[in-house]
Amino acid sequence: MPPAWQTSPSNLRESGVLAGLLAAMGAGAMWGLVFVVPLILPEYPGIVLAFGRYLAFGVLAIGLAWMDRAALARLSRADWIEATRLALVGNLLYYATLASAIQLTGAPVPTLMIGTLPVVIAVSANLLDRHAALPWRRLALPLVVILAGLAAVQFTPGEVAGAPGGGAKHLLGVLLAACAVACWTWYPLRNSRWIQGHGPELVRPWATAQGLATFPLALVAAIAFWAWEAVMRPGGGFDWPLGPRPVPFLALMLLVGLAASWLGTLLWNRASHLLPAALAGQLIVFETLAALLYAFLWYGRLPTVAEALGIVLLVAGVVLGVRAFRAGRAVETGAVPGQG
Question: How many CB atoms lie within 10 A of CB 170?
C-alpha cells in the first residue's frame, strides 16, 4: 500500500504533512525523557536503565495488546521477525550502546554524535529511497542549518561533566556511540518501510508488537548481565534487581516504558506513515530539542546565548525542511507552492 503522502489529493496531503509534523513533535517530546532519567538516577548504570526501560515497555505492551488483539493476530511470521529485529537494534542495542558510551567518554562526545542523526538519516533516506528522494539542492540548506544548530548547542560548555581522559576507554566509547548512531539510522528507515507498506490501522498495533518483541530480549539480556556480574564482580556489582532507590527507579522505568517507548513509537509510526523518510529523518531533531528543554528544567537555568542560537537554528532547519518537502511535492504535481 502506498504511503499517505504519495496517494492523497493535494489538500489532504497538506493536512497529512501537518499531522505527521505534530506526531513527530510528540514522539520527540516523549523520547527526550530518556535523556533526563540518568540525571535523576545517577547511581544506576546506563545498561541497567536500558533493561529497566524495555522490561517496563514489554510488560505494558502485554497489557495493551488486548486492545489490538485482532490486528496483532493478523501479523505474519515475517512481521514478527521484523518486529524482533527492530526491537533488538532500535531499542536494546541502541540504548545500551548509547548509555555505555556516555559512561566511558562522558556526555559531550556521544551527545554530539547522536545529535547528527537528523542529518545522517535524511541523507541516508534520500540516497536509498529513489521514489521519495528530493533533489539535493532542496535538502542542502535545511540540513546545513540543522547541523549548525547542533554544533552551536553541543560545542557550548554546559553543566554536564566533560569527557574523561583519552585512551582505550575513550576510543571504545566513541566506537559505541558510532554503533548507536548506526542503530538509529537503520531503525527509522527500516520501520518507515514497514509502516508505509501497511495500512494506517496498524500504526498502534505495530508499536505494541515491538514492545512484545522487546520483552523477552530485554529479559534474557538482563539475566545474562546479572549472571556475568555475579561471576566477574561477586558482591561488588549492581544491587539487583531494583538498586538503591527502588521506588523512583520503578516509577521512572514505567514512565519511560509507557511514554518514551510505547507512545513515542506509536507517534513515530504515525509520522512515518504520513511523511517520506527523508523529511521524517530531519524531524528527529525534536528529540534533541525536548532533551534540552528537560535538562534546562532539571538544572533550573535558562539557555545560554549560544544554546539559544542553536535552538533557533534547529527550529529554522526543520521549517526549511518542511518547506523543501512541500515545494518538491508541488513541483511533482504541477501545483504552485502556497496555493490549494
Answer: 16
